[in-house]
Amino acid sequence: MCERAGLLAELKHGAGCRIDEAAEKLHRLSQDIWSCPELAYDERKAHDRLVAFFSQEEEGWKVDSHFKLDTAFRATWGPGGGGEGDVVSVAFLCEYDALPGIGHACGHNLIAEVGAAAALGFKAAVEKSSKLPVRVTVLGTPAEEDGGGKIDLIREGAFDGLDVVFMAHPLQDDAPFLPHVAEHDVTVKYHGKASHASAYPWEGVNALDAAVLCYNNLSVLRQQIKPDWRIHGIIKHGGVKPNIIPAYTELEYYLRTPSRAELPVIKAKAEMCFRSAAMATGCEVEVEYARNAFDNILRNRTLEDLYEENGKALGMEFTTDEEVLTNASGSTDFGNVSFVVPGIHSYFYIGSKALSHTEEYTVAAGDQKAQFYTLRTAKALAMTALDVLLCPDLLQRVKDEFTEAKLKEDRLLKDGPTDNTKNA
Ligand SMILES: NCCC[C@H](NC(=O)CCN)C(=O)O
């Protein structure tokens, strides 16, 4: 029980009221982002809109536009220094990139809204009590769907000095945590030699054959990998004309394992598939891994329990469906954040059972119905941040749990997976 329970309850109420008061402009913010979907690292309008929100529509924030990345931003409130001494440095994260062809089918417009709303609520609550040593940061993090903007931002020091970070992602259910897998994306390029496919095919070196063999090698490999590992990809370039032996082909694959420690194993296995296809066809092969590999998420059960308690108080019904709770979903660059700062990446229902990355989900993410759930989630995040701020024991527990979980993962990474898959 927190010593300052009375004050805490009052501040939580204040945070909720502030979020309700700003409901209309928060909705406008997410609608503007939703109606103009932009891809990873190119979220210019979303960036400008969020920067305008914190510098023009809201008061008291110091805003850094183009913060370390062209389409990232930072808004801060409270004493400088971030995290030093007694100042607790709390951050809320916004995402706002969309998917090619289907717009905001992952609902990142709502992630931007929920991050902004939680920050507004939290700031308003702590502002009332001048004695609270806190610094609030909103980080606009581009390129979750492709590239991993948060990983670039970590590298640039954007997360230094933060004590705890909060974000929430829309889905079909409310859940304080869902497992995410580590991921490394790879592009494979085959270089062959063009020739007339009917007149002198023997003069050609067929790069499409290499791509097809590579695809098939990986499909066969899939039988021999663990059930929760994932290999999936596309042929991005498959040649230009049937009567020209393809001289160049390109595949893009995502390789995923539940833990970042297992990634090297799946990569080594996949690599043999890439190279053997080249050897069989006489092509040259180039294997290019993406600049950033995504980590799995490091859980923080202290934060999850607090979030769940606050969510329930607001009427959330958390899923108990074991399949949802245990099946690995996708990957997120928040995984990497969870290895440098303790944090929570919860999931929230938006009034629709549509599946993400579908056109139906795009519609749901722009629907008025999503607003109630989005703002309720923002309240639960702000309330959880208040718990951590007002009860120093909790913050210490959050940090201790983080340190212990990280040590365990670091050990796993150093020693490698314990089963025979490491012999690959
Ligand atoms: N190459 C990065 C893909 C990330 C993507 N993330 C999600 O779908 C989770 C929520 N945005 C993925 O395919 O897992």
From TrEMBL:
<dbReference type="GO" id="GO:0051246">
    <property type="term" value="P:regulation of protein metabolic process"/>
</dbReference>
<protein>
    <recommendedName>
        <fullName>Peptidase M20 domain-containing protein 2</fullName>
    </recommendedName>
</protein>
<dbReference type="InterPro" id="IPR002933">
    <property type="entry name" value="Peptidase_M20"/>
</dbReference>
<keyword id="KW-0121">Carboxypeptidase</keyword>
<dbReference type="InterPro" id="IPR017439">
    <property type="entry name" value="Amidohydrolase"/>
</dbReference>
<dbReference type="GO" id="GO:0006508">
    <property type="term" value="P:proteolysis"/>
</dbReference>
<dbReference type="InterPro" id="IPR052030">
    <property type="entry name" value="Peptidase_M20/M20A_hydrolases"/>
</dbReference>
<dbReference type="Pfam" id="PF01546">
    <property type="entry name" value="Peptidase_M20"/>
</dbReference>
<comment type="similarity">
    <text>Belongs to the peptidase M20A family.</text>
</comment>
<dbReference type="InterPro" id="IPR036264">
    <property type="entry name" value="Bact_exopeptidase_dim_dom"/>
</dbReference>
<dbReference type="InterPro" id="IPR011650">
    <property type="entry name" value="Peptidase_M20_dimer"/>
</dbReference>
<feature type="domain" description="Peptidase M20 dimerisation">
    <location>
        <begin position="186"/>
        <end position="275"/>
    </location>
</feature>
<keyword id="KW-0645">Protease</keyword>
<comment type="function">
    <text>Catalyzes the peptide bond hydrolysis in dipeptides having basic amino acids lysine, ornithine or arginine at C-terminus. Postulated to function in a metabolite repair mechanism by eliminating alternate dipeptide by-products formed during carnosine synthesis.</text>
</comment>
<keyword id="KW-0378">Hydrolase</keyword>
<dbReference type="Pfam" id="PF07687">
    <property type="entry name" value="M20_dimer"/>
</dbReference>
<dbReference type="GO" id="GO:0004180">
    <property type="term" value="F:carboxypeptidase activity"/>
</dbReference>
<dbReference type="InterPro" id="IPR017144">
    <property type="entry name" value="Xaa-Arg_dipeptidase"/>
</dbReference>
<dbReference type="GO" id="GO:0016805">
    <property type="term" value="F:dipeptidase activity"/>
</dbReference>
